[in-house]
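**Sequence, structure tokens**
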Amino acid sequence: MVRLDANLPTHEEDTEDIRQLPTNLYSDEPPLETDLHRDQIDLLIRLLKHGWRDRSNFYISGNLTVYYNEQQLKSRDFRGPDIFVVLNAEKKDRRSWVVWEEGGKYPNVVIELLSNSTAAVDKGTKKRLYQDIWRVPDYFWFHPETLEFAGCHLVDGQYEAIAPTDAGWLWSEQLELYLGIHKQQLRWFSKHGQLIPLPEEQERQAKEAAQQRAEQLEAVLRSQGLDPEQLLEP
């Protein structure tokens, strides 16, 4: 559990201290609670990586430790977010996110997946940590079983609830994307309201569109008294 100590250094105060800390640290996260949690994490990571495949200036990961100061490192009293995104960061594989190795960068967006055993911490202690210490601009939580979904944006140092759209989606100012529930899972949507697809979904959509065009062409030919099959004969 996180202990929010008044003496914890903030972004500005820890600049000198973190220079002497160890580097190349391994993540130290517990196993995920359910298949639903693991699948949801994998889905959001895959989707953003595919949707932003032409971009090289972001990092997204999940269930990975974020090391941010010496006191936290020694006490080992905080575990990493379920999903987090850092903008203007090199897109490469990492053992963990180590703030002092990354130019002092903290996540721009954090998503926590609630469970009955973690909901109070995710909506309380962790929320305060993300607001007061990390200063994460966009924070969301989602329960894969009950579908509870909410988010907040940092305004003048305090979190304010993000108002949902008519469809129940929440806007991320940092990513310029919506988060919303689709078929019982949390998904990304473009600012124009389009579902961000997985590669296999894109392929299926392309096949369905091609099939629809073929059927429309066949209907036009038959309406003119032509047999499409005869036209294809050598």
In short: Residues 1-9 have pLDDT under 50 and may be disordered. The chain has two domains: 17-196, 198-234. The chain is about 30% helix and 20% strand. The first strand starts at residue 58 and ends at 61.
